[in-house]
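Each field is listed here:
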Amino acid sequence: MIYVPDTSYACYVVVDSDTIRAYETVPTQDSTVYYRDYYINSNYLYEDSYQTFSRYSTLPVCLDSDLITDDYWHRNDFDSILIIVLIICIFVIWLPFKILLRFFRRFQ
């Protein structure tokens, strides 16, 4: 499965190992199509633009829609997100809790 944040586009193409391009409509010859590039190794940042296809252009081959998902479990940076959440929990919940417990023990 390939994760993309928005699955409402008509056509998805893998441009390179870092980029997935999502076309608003299926590209045809002699047309201009708006697209969004998702940079999968940069936390799914995106950039919008358009591409013009002439009569002599090679049209991209769309990925099968069964390969595309917006389920966040398939993100390639999911392990980094879990580590960040764990660190935040330690410093925001566990550490202040331990400090407050020691503080209130002294006043008993």
User: Anything to note?
Assistant: The first strand starts at residue 2 and ends at 3. The chain is about 25% helix and 30% strand.
